[in-house]
Amino acid sequence: MDINKDINQFDIPLAKRTYLNNTNLLPLKKLLIFSPFLFFIFTIVALQLIRNTEFKPLSNQKNQIVRNHDHRILGHLPYDEIPKEKLVLIEPNIEVHNDMRDSLLKMREEARKDGIYLVFLSGFRSINLQNEIFYSLKSIRNQEAAERARVSAPPGYSEHSTAFAIDIGDATQRETDFETEFENTQAFRWLINNAAKFHFKLSFNKDNQYIDYEPWHWRYEGSIEALKVFENSNRKL
Ligand SMILES: [Zn+2]
Predict the structure, then answer these.
(1) What is d(CA 108, CA 93) in angstroms, rounded to the nearest whole number?
(2) How close is the Cα of 224 to the center of ligand 1, in Å?
(3) What is the pLDDT of residues 147-194, one digit of tens each?
(4) CA 232 to each of CA 70, 71, 106, 162: distance values in angstroms, whole numbers, following the listed order
(5) Distance in Å, CA 65 to ligand 1 centroid
(6) What is the distance in A from the centroid of ligand 1 to the CA of 204?
(7) 215 Cα: distance to centroid of ligand 1 (angstroms)
């Protein structure tokens, strides 16, 4: 009797404990089984949140820099020097890209028929020559690089190195060579009305915020190579 009583006393609490375990621990067990998935989901959500709050502004900032920076220096885009074999001499001291030779000479000829006398002032300039122009004038005029760059491109950043650029004057008003006053000459007015027919375009107009207006400086965009060279420049700032 005593033994049975002992056994019963022992069994009943054990049975109760087992019963309690089955009900209370079942959700916990499920939780343990699913915990790796939950951890995985939590990690994904956390990473997403971090991306949205921290990484996204950083990547936007990076895009902003690329869009605004554009590889320009003081407003000038970089240009490679044209290989020598693509240069042709059109008159003493004036070399241009082979692609634009015919169009340029044709333009001068057509202008002459209209009583306008164009004079070519400067064509291809090597990066070395541009280096001399940029740094020697800088020291002579006591100007900082940024001021200097308003009127002359830094070496490696001049359209003249591509041989697709030409500086043009009016043969009847040489005092306006490389001067803003060139815009008041008949030659300039003729160019504004006719240059596009020969695939020439004014490079630095009055809208450019970095580089001074250069009515004498025209570039050729009449070949695929020329269009490729000036593709970046033709994109909106
Ligand atoms: Zn020029």
Answers:
(1) 17
(2) 21
(3) 888 888 999 999 999 999 999 999 999 999 999 999 999 999 999 999
(4) 8, 10, 28, 14
(5) 29
(6) 9
(7) 9
